[in-house]
Amino acid sequence: MRDFWEDVDQLPEDSNHYTGVLTLEAVPDTVWKTWTHDTWIIKSRRFRPFHVVDGQQRLTTLVILMQVILEKTSSPKLNYTPTGDIRRKYIFDSKDEGRSRSYIFGYEKDNPSYEHLKTAIFCEPSEVHSVGEETIYTKNLTRAKEFFKTKIASYSTKNLETLFDKVTQRLVFNVYEIASEIDVFVTFETMNNRGKALSNLELLKNRLIYLSTKLGKTKDEAKKLRTNINEAWKSVYHYLGRNDQRLLNDDQFLVAHLHGYFHRLIIAQPSNDDERERYFSLAGRRIEEVGRLLLGDVFSQKRIARAEDEFKPISVATISDYTADLKQTCELYFQLSTPASSKFSVDEKLWLERVYRLRGYAASPLLLWSFKSKSSGRERANFLQAFERFLFVMSFVNASQAIQLRPGQHLLWARDVASGKLSIADLTVILQNAVSDVFKETATWDLVGDWVQSSKAYYGWKNLKYFLFEYECELLEASRTHREKVRWDEFAREDYAYDYETIEHVYPQKSRDDYWKERFESFTTSQRRALKNSLGNMVALSRPRNSSLSNKAFPIKRDDPNLGYRVGSYSEIEVASFADWNADTILQRGQKMLEFLQRRWGFPIGDRETQKKALGLQYLPVPNRPAE
Asked: What are phi and psi of 508, to 5 degrees?
């Protein structure tokens, strides 16, 4: 969309722009004669109807831009052409003075995008009682319209006429017509492998429909299979695009589903370690490899009605079962990725959110197939709590070495749960034991020792924001107001302007003020760096703050009436309770945060000397007073 706009916007008025190939398939008479709103225009105008095999996105973009131009213009004509004639040529025509609509370009009526294009984009009334099904595609249509409206908001009539000329006269296409239905699926896949890559999920749908033309014993059977495939994909795209704020990646969903479903596609389950390794190498693949596995091996034409390598033969039942499970699983995948819209228990939602703060808002194969297994809400909540602790411990480098898990172990667990070899209760115990093994003979210092001595120390810890957010939540629980001051979606953002941050060094990284020089000049450069990046010196801000204030003296940062710590998050208020900020207070607050680490995740923190080492401050004396 943006690339298209730049091409059109920068196109000289006397030049043409090559817009690519349009690949079309003629619609048979038996099909278009069922189009009650369109038969009149096909017959009376001798139009030939086509399905757009390749180029649909470009045509959709053009039509949306044309609609936006028509909405923007206040003139009855553009380039001497009445706007009514323009609308009839490019948007819709009517046989009865506007009461009916025959859309020049659109979607099949059973496609959710049909109603959306008609009502939300063309601003025409709906003829059906529908709340409007939202998908990734319908949302993309709306975004495209809003994008173009913004771009031409300040256009004069002359600017609109120039744009109209470019769109209608200066864009050049090559048109290619496909001969038969079967050719459509082959050509579609070939073209999109050469051009802009489609997602594996889109290519897989095309492949399954193509196979349906080879597998169905009768036309009715093949048609029913294609209908089931289309219905499954409509449902999948509905759930993947249902949450505007958290759109789900279709390839990630395909991978998560495959890791559990894989055991149904192969001839035999692995019976020994060597076979398990081979099994893992087949299914434990990255996103780009999963496409090659599904399209090149599992749903390959060479496997029709016969086994090939490890995989079972393809049949109508194979495809039907796979698509049905994909459809059914996607709703669960959406609920897992958007817990607030689910019917899970309060505890399940709480721990799901915590897991996602650690690893991102997409259900992993292990989560997906654990929830697909037969289990109670309490069992699932216990599993999530164990999984969150396991993931948190994994963020400490040496912990993964101590547990000695093979790469992708969680994928093997997912497949064992999916195949019934592991129950969710068994998996919970495995996770709990794995973490317990780490702590048997390992102190906190030994877990964090390697990276706490690095230049960034805790500031380079990948789970620092998660830890500070959980610490803020504990302070919130202890407060009198119970008013949330830090929202995770804002706190975790990485796209703020360069000099705005959501985590602040109380003793600033650029400590040029005399206040800081007086309190820290006795330390070496490396010791000052360790103090700045130690855990006790980090504070979660209630709102992003410019570095110009962050580098001020502590009393100014604490007492500023608008952005000071006293009016900030609960963590900021805690920092504001200190009369002074020096090495001693950094150590005190750090020890308090380590005590929270022990309570929250069961970390053994050791004595005060061990705590100092864990904070990277072993050169400091132990304070005479206990940590607050």
From this structure: -70, 155
334 with 243: CB under 8 angstroms?
yes
What Å distances lie between residue 589 and 318, 538, 555, CA to CA?
60, 10, 17
CB 102 within 8 A of CB 94: yes
Phi, psi at residue 602, to the nearest 5°?
70, 30
Cα separation, 40 vs 317, in Å, equals 41
Backbone angles phi, psi at 440, to 5 degrees: -60, -45
Q: 477, 552 in Cβ contact below 8 A?
A: no
CA distance 61 to 19: 12
Bridge partners of residue 265, in order along the sequence: none
d(C-alpha 337, C-alpha 356), whole Å: 8
Q: How far apart are CA 24 and CA 55, in angstroms?
A: 9
Q: Are 131 and 120 in contact (CB under 8 A)?
A: no
CB atoms within 10 A of CB 20: 14
Residue whose structure tokens are 């864990």 = 614
In 3D space, the residue among 560, 601, 555, 600 whose CA is nearest the CA of residue 581 turns out to be 555
* Tokens, residue 491: 């706190």
Q: What is the C-alpha separation between 542 and 487, in angstroms, rounded?
A: 8
**pLDDT interval class at 333 (50, 70, 90):** very high
Residue 146 contacts by C-beta under 8 Å, 6 or more apart in sequence? none
Give exposure, 329-353, as e/b (b: 16+ Cβ within 10 Å).
Answer: bbebbbbbbbbeebebeeebbbbbb
Task: Tell me the CB-side half-sphere exposure of residue 319, using CA atoms within 13 A.
Answer: 33
Whole-angstrom CA distances from 119 to 361, 475, 476 are 32, 49, 46
Provide the phi-psi class of 243: left if phi over 0, else alpha when psi is between -120 and 50, else beta: beta
How many other C-beta atoms lie within 10 A of the C-beta of residue 17? 14
Check: CB of residue 244 under 8 Å from CB of residue 321. no
Task: Give 178's pLDDT tier (boundaries 50, 70, 90).
Answer: low
Q: What is the pLDDT of residues 420-471, one digit of tens each?
A: 889 999 999 999 988 888 777 666 666 676 677 777 888 888 889 999 999 9
pLDDT digits (tens, 9 = 90+) for 228-268: 988 898 888 888 888 877 788 888 899 889 888 888 888 77
